[in-house]
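Running co-folding for alpha-D-glucopyranose.
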Amino acid sequence: MPQDSISRRNFMLGLGASGLLAPASSAAMAQEAGALQTAATAGETEVQIADRARRLAWWREAKFGMFIHWGLYSVIGHQEWVMESEGIPIPQYEILAKHFTPKPGAAREWARLARRAGQKYMVLTTKHHEGFCLWDTRLTDYCAAKQGPQRDLVREFVEAARAEGLRVGFYYSLMDWHHPDGIRCETDPEARTRFVAYTHGLIRELMTNYGKIDILWYDVDKPLTAEQWESERMNKMVFELQPDIIVNNRNGLPGDFSTPEHKIEAAARAWETCDTMNLGWGYQKNDTEWKTPKRIVNDLTTCAQQGGNYLLNIGPMADGSVPEESVRVLERVGAWLDVNGKAIYGTDGGASVSFGNYDNFTRRGNTLYVHVYFWPAAMPAAQWLSFYQPQSVVAVGGVQAKILSARILKTGQPLQFTQNNISLRLTGLPATPPDDPVTVLAVECDAPPVVDHHSIRPEWQRFKVGVTS
Ligand code: GLC
């Protein structure tokens, strides 16, 4: 089992991959400047832009969702691409449909887990690239209701999510390896007409038969162009059937939000990073490369810092059970959010245009949240540098607001502070971190705070340059 205590080097590598250590992107700065809606909405009317903001409002508040990759591939346990990556003949692969027999109540378990983890919405793979539909469709027999499960697994999912007060999202893969027209459609116009009608028909069912759906999460639009998929007509149908829904950008159109995958990359529009807890999306039995709770808390925080969402995947086994390590890690993250949710949900984004070496930042209104992931240690340097006295100082360079008070979010313990035009120093901290895996300090300011340590370069008094005597 992986340890939560990870070496600084590995952790920093992780943060580097997550973008935390990268200098603020120009996109994040554009967002900071208030250009949030404009870039991806060129050509839209003011009414459309306002409607998008309305539809996105709950999602921006929610920040954290659960992605679920589950399908026939889960029976094999070699991830969701197994059919193609191992070249399994279709008649062989189809046999799985008879042996995919999930236990009752699986979706309830996921929904309860999502709630415990502090996730506010769930997105299920209703049909992945393998082409098997998890719902009761009239358009193919290759679906859960007519094969092994003999149940509408999408309906169970929708009911489970709603029972836990969670929003409901459908992932839908346009690419289809199983349907006879799925690849033929690229070159044969008649196959294309049939396959586009099939695709629109399946989406229509999903948008009609399950009440209010909150997210439609398209995936892989190969082998057709947006024009060939008739993606504009597709989205129009979706919005007619579900006027409050939000759609992503993977049917060849920009949609309402962008979907950076396995990386945190702010955009000057709504965006959501999707990522896995180990290496794969679909169940992979021997994949033990689990991210730690600390890494996940940090990635969630980095998304919130830059104004985005975080969609974190589980890959249940064929019977619907969630791998134990996913449960353990999600519960830890949820326990942290129980205490520190204020520093994540509904935060404003744009807290920081630079990065800390042991901390991360979010903000809401005039409150700055300093997320300390490496607790400042006692150090020999403290005996010579008054900057580090009293012992245990959290120092933040370039806070662009006046500090009024500070406290530890978990305990409410007030902190002392000093601030000048280059640095904020928070002191009165306990010797060991009061929270795990990350301790949040809540700092009240006189204006919406921004951390920008680049800003202090002109402020530093530089002296003693050259040789004295
Ligand atoms: C990629 C993969 C797919 C996965 C998705 C999640 O598109 O093809 O397997 O479902 O990413 O974002």
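Result summary
The CA atoms of residues 192 and 358 lie 53 Å apart.
Confidence is low (pLDDT under 50) at residues 1-40.
Job closed.
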